[in-house]
Write a structure and sequence with these properties.
- This protein has 759 residues and is mostly beta strands.
- Among the domains are: 66 residues, no CATH class; 82 residues, Immunoglobulin-like, CATH 2.60.40.
- The chain is 2% helix and 45% strand.
- A hairpin with a 5-residue loop joins strand 8 and strand 9.
- It is globular and about 90 Å long.
- This is T9SS type A sorting domain-containing protein.
C-alpha cells in the first residue's frame, strides 16, 4: 500500500486549522536542560525537544514546543543572538531551527541533515559560537558557518587530516582567529578572514593534548582537557591555571568571568583566574549540573533532571527553581483523566514488559482549572517502583489506582497515598523464584459494580479483583496456555461483565466469573480466533458492543461481545477498506499500542512508530493520521491514549512528550443538567465554532433567534454538538441572543440555554 489509509480530507488543512483554533495543547516537561543562553534580561533554555524564555526582571515566561512548530527532535544546543534577536536551536540529527523572537516565525535549516556524504549519526550539533554576524557551528564532522543576517549557510570546514571529518567540541574567536577543539586532534586554529580557510591546510595545530573545551576570557584563550586541567594559551604553549575537581560539562565566559560547570561543581573565576565562587551542592537537591550563566549578578544553573535554579552571586545560600510548570519528565507512560484534569505516571518497561532497571519516579496530578502540576514523591507512595498504569474511579474521582510493574497496586484517595497492595494484604503474588517484592500489575479496569480488576504478570494466577467491599479474590485463567509466563496489555469490561484481557502470548483472553468462570481465548489461526499475532496489546469495547483488538501485527474486531456467552470459540475479523480501488486490510502489520473510543463511537488507535490514527465508528473512513511530520505529535511511538469524556480532549503520550487534540466528541451524559455552551458570548473576530457539551446521547438541539426563527438543528452523537454560527443557508447569523432548545431522544427531559453573538 502506498498509504495505510485514504485520507478523507487534507491533513495539512487539519493541522493548520488546529493550531489557529488552539486544538492542540502541549504538556511538556522542561526539567531536562540541555543548554542555556542569555539576553540582556532574559534566560533562554533548551530542553529535550522544547525551549523556554523567561524575563529575569518581570518573571514573564514563554514556552515553545511542537505545538508552536518545533520539530520534536532532540535538542543539543541553544544560542540567543542579541544583535539579531534570534534564537538558534541545534539538534542531535543536525537540524537547526532559527526563531525570530520579534514575530515568532521559525526557519528549519536542513543543510546539515541533507549532507549525503555525512553519516546520519555524525551530524550532531555540539556548540554555537557567534562572531561578526556569523554562527560557527561545531558538529561531529567539522565546522559549518551560518549567516545570521541572510539566514543562509556558508562554507563547511573539514579540518581533519587531508580534509577528513573530525568531531569538533567547541570553538571561540579572538582577534579574527578561530580556535577549535577537535576530538583526538587537539586545538586547531585559523584566520576567519583568510579567503582560503575552507582548505584544511590553512589550519594549524596549537596543541595536541586531549582537550574538551575552548573559550576566550578577555584577551586570553582558555582551554580544559580530559584530565580536568584548566589552561590558558601563552602563544602555542598551554599554561596550567589549576586542576578542577571534575571533568567539565560546560565552559563559558560571561562579563569577564569564567564559569566552569561539572557534574557536581560550579567554579567561577575572575579575569585574573582568581576563584570568586564555587558551588558544590544545593539544599534539598541532588541535581546534576549541566551548564551555568550569570545575568545581572544572578546565577542560573541548568540541571539534568530538575530544570533551572537561580541564586545570587554575592549570597548563594538560597536556590529558587526557575522552570515553567510541567510533568516530571517527557516520557509519560500512562495517564487517566477526570473532569478537570488527569493523573500521569512515568515508570516504564521494555516492549517485552521488562521493568528493569527499576525507576523511582513520583506520580503527578494536573488540574486544568489552575494549570498546576502536583507531584507526590517516590518516598511518599510507599516506594512503589516502576508505576506504569493508573485509573481514576469515574464514580469517585478522588480515588485513583496505580499499577506498578514491580511493587503491586497503589491506592490514592483525596490526593494522598493510602494503601499499597502486595502479597501481604491481597491475593497478588510475586514471580516464583524472584525477589519477594516483585509483583507486576500490568492492567487495571473497573466494572459496572465498582469492582477493580487487575492483572498479575508472570504469576501462577493472572487475574485478581478488589471488590467494592474491600475483599480480594483471585481467578485462574484456565484457557490461557502458559499463564505462568504471561504479561498483559489492557483490560476492557463489557456490558455483560466479561473481562477481555490482552496478553503477550495468549492473544486475548475473555473471562466472566458470573458464568461459572467461563474462559475463552482468541489466538492465531483460522478457527482459533484469527488474530495476526498472539501478542495482543490493546482491547476496547465500543458503543455498538464490538470488541476492537490491537496486536503487534495489526487490528481485529469481534462483531459482538455477546458471542462469548453463546459460542465455544470466538473468531475475529479484519476490516477491509478500498485503497486505489484495491481491497486492503486496515492497519495491516501495524504495532498497535492502544485503542480508545470517543463519544461519537469513533476510534483513536496509537502505534509504535506510525503515530495516531483517527478513524470512523466502523473503520471504513480515516479522518486523520497524526504523525510528528504533520502535527505537533513529538514522536511517532505513542505509548498511551486517553480521552476526557467530559471535554473530548484526546491525550497522546509519546516517547518524547505529552500532547492533546481537542476533539468534538464527548460521552453522553445521563441528563441535561450539566449542559455548557462555549464560548459565550461569541465576541467580534471569533472564527471558531460554538460547542454545546454535556448533552445526552442523541439529544435534539434546536437553535432559534429571539423571534423563534429556526437557524440550526442537530442530533448529538455522544455528548457534544458543534455549531459554526451559520444558518441553513450557511450564512453567518447576525448579532443577537439565540435560544438553544434541548431535549433528550425520548423527549422526557428538556432544557433551554442562551448564547449571545456579537459581530
Amino acid at each position: 500500500m502506498k498509504n495505510y489509509f485514504k485520507i478523507l480530507f487534507l491533513l495539512t488543512s487539519i493541522i493548520g486549522q488546529s493550531q489557529v483554533n488552539s486544538k492542540w495543547k502541549g504538556y511538556f516537561s522542561f526539567n531536562a536542560i540541555k543548554d542555556i543562553s542569555m539576553g540582556s534580561q532574559s534566560v533562554f533554555a533548551g530542553t529535550e525537544n522544547a525551549y523556554f524564555t523567561k524575563n529575569t526582571l518581570t518573571g514573564i515566561e514563554k514556552t515553545t514546543t511542537t505545538v508552536e512548530g518545533l520539530s520534536g527532535e532532540n535538542i543539543t544546543q541553544i544560542h540567543y543572538s542579541k544583535a539579531y534577536n534570534k534564537t538558534i536551536l541545534g539538534h542531535a540529527n543536525g537540524l537547526i531551527i532559527v526563531i525570530n523572537e520579534v514575530d515568532g516565525s521559525m526557519l528549519n535549516v536542513v543543510d546539515i541533515i541533507n549532507k549525503g556524504s555525512i553519516p546520519p549519526n555524525k551530524k550532531r550539533i555540539n556548540h554555537f559560537c557567534e562572531y561578526n554576524g556569523k554562527i560557527y557551528i561545531s558538529t561531529d564532522f567539522g565546522i559549518s558557518v551560518f549567516n545570521l543576517r541572510t539566514s543562509q549557510f556558508g562554507d563547511t570546514y573539514y579540518i581533519g587530516p587531508n580534509g577528513s571529518n573530525i568531531e569538533i567540541f567547541q570553538t571561540t574567536v579572538l582577534n579574527d582567529v578561530i580556535y577549535a577543539v577537535a576530538n583526538g586532534y587537539g586545538i586547531l586554529r585559523a584566520s576567519v578572514i583568510n579567503p582560503f580557510i575552507v582548505d584544511f591546510s590553512q589550519w594549524t595545530m596549537v596543541s595536541n593534548d586531549n582537550w574538551s573545551a575552548v573559550e576566550k576570557l578577555g584577551d586570553k584563550i582558555i582551554a580544559t582537557n580530559l584530565n580536568s586541567g584548566l589552561y590558558y594559551l601563552n602563544g602555542n604553549t598551554p599554561v596550567l591555571i589549576r586542576s578542577l575537581p571534575q571533568l567539565t560539562n560546560d565552559v563559558r565566559a560571561v562579563d569577564n568571568k569564567l564559569i566552569l560547570t561539572s557534574q557536581n561543581y560550579i567554579t567561577i573565576l575572575d579575569d585574573l583566574f582568581n576563584q570568586t565562587l564555587q558551588i558544590n551542592n544545593m539544599p534539598n537537591s541532588t541535581a546534576t549540573f549541566i551548564c551555568t550563566t550569570i545575568i545581572n549578578n544572578q546565577i542560573y544553573i541548568g540541571t539534568k533532571e530538575n530544570g533551572i535554579f537561580m541564586t545570587n552571586f554575592n549570597n548563594p545560600t538560597t536556590f529558587k527553581n526557575f522552570t515553567p510548570p510541567g510533568p516530571v519528565r517527557n516520557k509519560v507512560f500512562g495517564l487517566s483523566s477526570f473532569r478537570t484534569g488527569f493523573w500521569m505516571v512515568y515508570g516504564d518497561h521494555s516492549g517485552y514488559y521488562n521493568p528493569y532497571p527499576l525507576d523511582t519516579f513520583p506520580i503527578t496530578k494536573y488540574n486544568s482549572d489552575t494549570n498546576l502540576y502536583k507531584s507526590t514523591a517516590f518516598a511518599d507512595i510507599f516506594s512503589a517502583k516502576s508505576i506504569t498504569k493508573n485509573l481514576v474511579n469515574p464514580i469517585n474521582e478522588n480515588q485513583v489506582f496505580f499499577g506498578s510493574s514491580y511493587s503491586g497496586l497503589l491506592k490514592v484517595e483525596n490526593d494522598a497515598p493510602t494503601t499499597i497492595y502486595n502479597a501481604s494484604n491481597s491475593t497478588l503474588t510475586t514471580i516464583p523464584g524472584q525477589v519477594p517484592d516483585d509483583i507486576r500489575v500490568n492492567a487495571l479496569a473497573l466494572d459496572n459494580e465498582g469492582n477493580l480488576w487487575v492483572t498479575n504478570a508472570i504469576a501462577p494466577i493472572g487475574l485478581h479483583s478488589l471488590k467494592n467491599n474491600g475483599q480480594w479474590q483471585a481467578y485462574n485463567l484456565s484457557c490461557a496456555t502458559g499463564q505462568r509466563f504471561s504479561s498483559y496489555g489492557t483490560i476492557a469490561v463489557d456490558k455483560n461483565g466479561t473481562k477481555w484481557i490482552a496478553t503477550n502470548n495468549n492473544g486475548v483472553v475473555a473471562f466472566n466469573e458470573k458464568y461459572n468462570n467461563r474462559c475463552l481465548a482468541i489466538i492465531e489461526g483460522e478457527g482459533e480466533g484469527n488474530l495476526p499475532s498472539i501478542d495482543a496489546r490493546a482491547v476496547a469495547v465500543d458503543q455498538k458492543n464490538k470488541l476492537w483488538i490491537g496486536t503487534t501485527k495489526g487490528l481485529r474486531i469481534v462483531n459482538s461481545v455477546d458471542s462469548f456467552l453463546s459460542q465455544n470459540a470466538i473468531e475475529s475479523t479484519s476490516i477491509i477498506i478500498l485503497e486505489d480501488n484495491l481491497a486492503q486490510e486496515l492497519m495491516f502489520n501495524q504495532f498497535i499500542t492502544d485503542i480508545v473510543v470517543d463519544g461519537a463511537n469513533n476510534k483513536w488507535i496509537s502505534t509504535a512508530g506510525a503515530g495516531v490514527f483517527y478513524i470512523s465508528a466502523d473503520g471504513q473512513k480515516t479522518y486523520a493520521i497524526f504523525t510528528k511530520e504533520n502535527s505537533p505529535l513529538p514522536n511517532n511511538t505513542v505509548i498511551d491514549l486517553e480521552i476526557n469524556k467530559y471535554t473530548g480532549e484526546v491525550f497522546m503520550a509519546t516517547e518524547s512528550g505529552l500532547v492533546s487534540f481537542k476533539g468534538n466528541a464527548t460521552a453522553g451524559e445521563d441528563n441535561l443538567q450539566n449542559v455548557i455552551v462555549y464560548p459565550n458570548p461569541v465576541r467580534p473576530g471569533f472564527t471558531g465554532n460554538v460547542a454545546i457539551t454535556g448533552l445526552t446521547d442523541k439529544a435534539n438541539v434546536k437553535i432559534t433567534d429571539i423571534e423563534s426563527n429556526l437557524v440550526f438543528e442537530a442530533i448529538s452523537q455522544g455528548g457534544t454538538v458543534i455549531w459554526d454560527t451559520t444558518n441553513f443557508r450557511k450564512r453567518k447569523v447576525a448579532s443577537g441572543v439565540y435560544m438553544l432548545h434541548l431535549s433528550t431522544s425520548d423527549g422526557l427531559e428538556t432544557e433551554v440555554k442562551k448564547v449571545m453573538i456579537v459581530r
